[in-house]
Amino acid sequence: MRDDQRRQRLVDANPWWRAASAGEDPTAWAAHQRILRSRADYDLGYRPDILNDVRTEPVTDLLAVLTGPRRIGKSVALLDTCRSVVRPA
Description:
- The chain is mainly alpha-helical.
- It has helices at about 5-15, 15-20, 30, 35-40, 50-55, 75-85.
């Protein structure tokens, strides 16, 4: 697979990349994301800092693996990080 084909697949598969490439708000996906939308009803304002280094450091080719027991917030932490990293153009 060529590099441009790989990039196009990533754009097609990721709502924030797809929106950014179309000139739309890349954070609009968060309003439709079930986990984040459901949390809004009982949000206490806590945000885990486990992914702060991923959020603030330059993008590299490093593979990061987030592991832990079920239902402790891994997906929510990842979604929060994605939402905070992507900024509207």
